[in-house]
Each structure stands twice: as structure tokens, then as C-alpha cells.
Amino acid sequence: MNLETDLVRKLKELKRVAICYSGGIDSAYLLTVANNVLGKNNVIALIAKGPMIDQNDYNEALNYLNIANYNYCELDFNPLEITEFKNNTKDRCYYCKHQMLLILKNKANNLGFSFLLDGQNKDDLDKYRPGSKASKELGVLSPLSNMTKLEIRTNAKKLNIPFYDKPANSCLATRFPYATTLTLEKLKLVEKAEYLIKTLGLKLVRARIHDDILRIEVLPADFNLIINSNIPTKLKELGFKYVTLDLLGYSSGNYDITY
Q1: Which portions of the chain are predicted below pLDDT 70?
Q2: What is the per-residue burial (b if ≥16 Cβ within 10 Å, else e) of 12-41?
Q3: N or C: which end of the chain has fewer CB within 10 A?
């Protein structure tokens, strides 16, 4: 069966759904298809607002909801109140996701939605994703689990979702080595550093922080843009003793690889 046809079938069977919306292309695609299939009154996007999310990404996520005129609900969530997150343990994502999904699920039920869906795709199944365990435990459904990221992007382009090719982003906690005590100030520091680097027009950027050392990850093709700019000086003004460029380039899940 065609994967898109199968997705439509699953949504029709559920009839009324709440969707964990992050602003990434996976949840945006799922949300768009659900609205097209079930109608606006039978779909709501639930979006968690907290310091773990880059504010520009959050604003872009809201912008799409407003332009598309989809129903949505914002919920405040502070993962720094969770011990495992604050201590940046290797399984912090599980505890954070579990608590966040509990909040979203309760909200969905209070609004009259029995089913909570997320945008987990087939490629996620091959990566270190401790948060997926929380989704299963709480009965969150993943109707995109048979689709690859490429298939989702291709389908999203057909639906005219403007950011179909936007690189995946992740929680700001991923920019620190495990066992680093996280604070609001540290998360905001990452946000500021990555914002500065992105002013050069770069999309794939990670600012990894090792105490007073900032290690920049970008694509090798973008090295010269950084080297020949005043961005390293501006980054040092944020309080870093050393600003470095990782010669191996951008790598998703870097700390999971080197742990």
C-alpha cells in the first residue's frame, strides 16, 4: 500500500487527533495531512514552550500554525525542574519526554482528544532516541514510523510546506557533554552562539560547549565563511576563553557517538 494512502487511512480511523508539534518537518507534515483529511475542528497541535528550544525555531513553528490557521495550544514546560535533565544524564531525553508527554496528553484529554500523535519517522528507529521509550509507554501513536525522512520531505514539498527542506534541530541540551549541569544561562548561551553563526546564512550549525571552550560544527564547505568573518571575535565576547572550529564538520548526535 502507498505510504501516504496508509497514513490517510490511519488518520480516518482515529477521526480526532492531537499532535505533538515541534515545528520540525515531521510533525508539520503530519499536522498538515491530518488537517486536510480530518478537518480543522478535529485536529489540534500541542506545542511545548520552554528553555530547551531555540526561540527563533519556536517562533517559526508558531508562524506556520498561524499562517495555516490551524488550531493549537501552547503549554509551558521547564525541563530544568527534572533532575535527570538538569544533570544532563545520558537518558535525560527519556525523563524529559515522559514528563512533557504527560502534560500534552492530559491537555489533549481535557480538550476531548483521545489520541495523541507524534512525528517519529522510520529513520529515528535506527538512532539513539531514549525519548521513544516514553512515547510507547504513554501510548503516543507514531503514524509516520513507516516513512523515511526523505519521503516525508518529498511529500511535504508536494503539500507546499515552505520549510520542507529545513535541517532538523534538537534540544539545546544536546550541545553539552553528558554529566554537565545545565542551567537556563547555559542554554541561552548556546542559543546566542548559534544565532550569531547563523547570521552568516548557515543552516547546519551546532555550538558545542566544553566549559570555557566553544567548538563550532558546520559543514566543511562553510569553514571559510566563519574563518573570514568577525563571528569568532563576537563569540569570544560571549565569555569563551577559546573558540574552535571542528575540522570534522557537522555531526548530528555528536555526543552520542563519542560517549
Answers
A1: 1, 127-128, 253-259
A2: eebebbbbbbbbbbbbbbbbbbbbebbeee
A3: N
